[in-house]
Amino acid sequence: MALKRLKGLAPSAARQLFTSVVAPVVDYASNVWLHSCSTTLIRPLNRVQNVGSQAIAGTFRTVATAVAEAEASISPVQRRFAKRATSFWMRLKTLPDTHPLARLETRTMKRFVSPLQRIAAAHEGTPIDKMETIRPFALEPWEERVGRLSDERAAEALGGVAGQTIIITSISVKQGTVGIGAVTRPWWCTRLADELITIAAALGTREEQNPFTAELAAMSRALHAFPAHLERDIILLSRNKAATQAVSKPHHQSGQEDIRQIYAAVKKLRRGGNTIVIGWIPKEADSPATQAAKRAARRHADPERPPAERPYRAVSTTLAAARTTQSGWALPEGIGKHSKRVDKALPGKHTRKLYDEMTAAQARVLAQLRTGMVRLNNYLHKIGAAPTEKCACGHATETVNHFLFRCTRWITQRIEMQQKTGTKTGCLSFHLGGKAPSDPDKWTPDMEAVQATVKYAMATGRLDE
Questions:
Q1: For 152-166, b where at least 16 C-beta lie within 10 A, e where not — what string?
Q2: pLDDT tens-digit profile of 126-136?
Q3: Chain-centroid distance, C-alpha 139
Q4: What is the pTM of this model?
Q5: For the domain 147-310, what is the CATH code?
Q6: Neighbour count for residue 317 (Cβ, 10 Å)
Q7: What pLDDT was estimated at residue 403?
Q8: Three-class SS of residue 341?
Q9: Secondary structure (DSSP) of 269-334
Q10: Hey, where are the domains in the chain?
C-alpha cells in the first residue's frame, strides 16, 4: 500500500521497489509453507500482486491478477516460489562436507511428508552429481587480491609491452562441448615462429559448464603451466568481463573452485618474483594472439574427444537448466480476452520495455488501453458508471478501437498518430505494442507508434474525464 501511494513513480523504479522490498517479505520462508498454499490461501498473496501491478503499470483494480502481473512484468506467486525452491535445493547441494546440512538425508516418510521431502521430490530428475562446492568465502580476507587493469590499459597491453608477458585466454562451444585455449607470449622469444606458446584442452559438456566457468578454468590452467622462476610482469587478458571481475574481487559465487586454483597459481608465481594483473579486452579488439587462442579452443571443442577428467558441475548452469524445465508462464483460459487479442505474446519480456520507457501518467493510459478496462463508455456501462455504452459522437459503441481510429470528435488529435503509424494505422496490436497473429516470431514492439498512440489518447483528455 505504501508503494501504491508513491504517486508519479516511474514503472521501472516501482518494479524495482516491488521486487526488492515487497516480494522478499511475502516470500519469507516460502520453502517451508509453499506446499500448503492452497487456492484459498493464495488469494491474499494475489491481492498483494494486484496492488503491486497497479503501482507499476497503473492498471485498474478490476483487472484480473494474471493480466495485471503480465502487464507489470512481475512473476506470479507460485512461479516465484518454485524458483526460490529450486535455488534453495541447488544451494543445499553445494555446501561443503563440513556443513551440517550437507550430511542431511532426505528420507521417505509416508505418514508425514516434510517440506524438504516435497522439494526433493519436485527436483528428482535434476542432475546434481559432482556438483561444485561453494564455501562461505573464496579466499581469506588477508590474502592479496589480483589487481585489475583499466579497459584502456588492457587494450594497450594487447599490442605488446616490452619486458611484459601476456597471457590471453579464450573458450569455444561446439555441439555441446566446451573447449578452452590460452596463448602465452613470453619475453624470451626472438623468432616470430616461436613467439606464441599455446595451452588448450577439452573442458566438458555445455550441460555442466558455461562460458564464465570455462574462462576461469582457462585462466587457471594457463597460470599453472607458466614457469614460476622467471621474475616477470604477467598480464592476464580475457574477453569475459565477469570472469575478470570475479578474479579481482572473488566472493560467494559459482566457479569458486577455479578461482581458488587461480590464486594458488598466483601465490606460487609471486613467490618466484613475478607480478600479476588481469584485464578485460572487448570483442572488437583483435590480434594474432587472440586469434591463436580462439583457434586452440575451437580445436579442442570436439565432442569426439572428451576430457580425460570430468570437471565439476557448475551450479549456475544446473540452476538455469532446472528453471527452464519448470512450467511456462501463460494466461489462464477464459481470462484476459481483450489482452489476448491485443497481444499474442503476453506474457512476455516486451512488456517491461513498453512501460519502462514511459512516465507514470503514460503508463496508466497504455495499461488501460491494453487491458480494455478503460474510462470509455463500453467498460463504464458494464460497471454501472455510465448510462449508455454509446460514444458521444453517436455513431457506435465507445470501444478502444472506436476511440483510437474512428471517433469523429478526435480527428485533429489523430493526425500526428497516423503520420507515425503509416500503413499500419488501424491495427490495434501495432498501436499498443502487442504482437499480432501475422507478426513473425522474432518481433519487437514499435515504440514510436506506441508513444504516438499514448500521446494521442492523452491529448484528447477523454481518459481523464
A1: eebbebbeeeeeebb
A2: 888 888 888 88
A3: 28
A4: 0.79
A5: 3.30.420.10
A6: 20
A7: 93
A8: helix
A9: HHHTT-EEEEEE--TT---HHHHHHHHHHHHH--TTS--SS--PBPHHHHHHHHHHTSPPP-PPTT
A10: 11-122, 147-310, 337-464
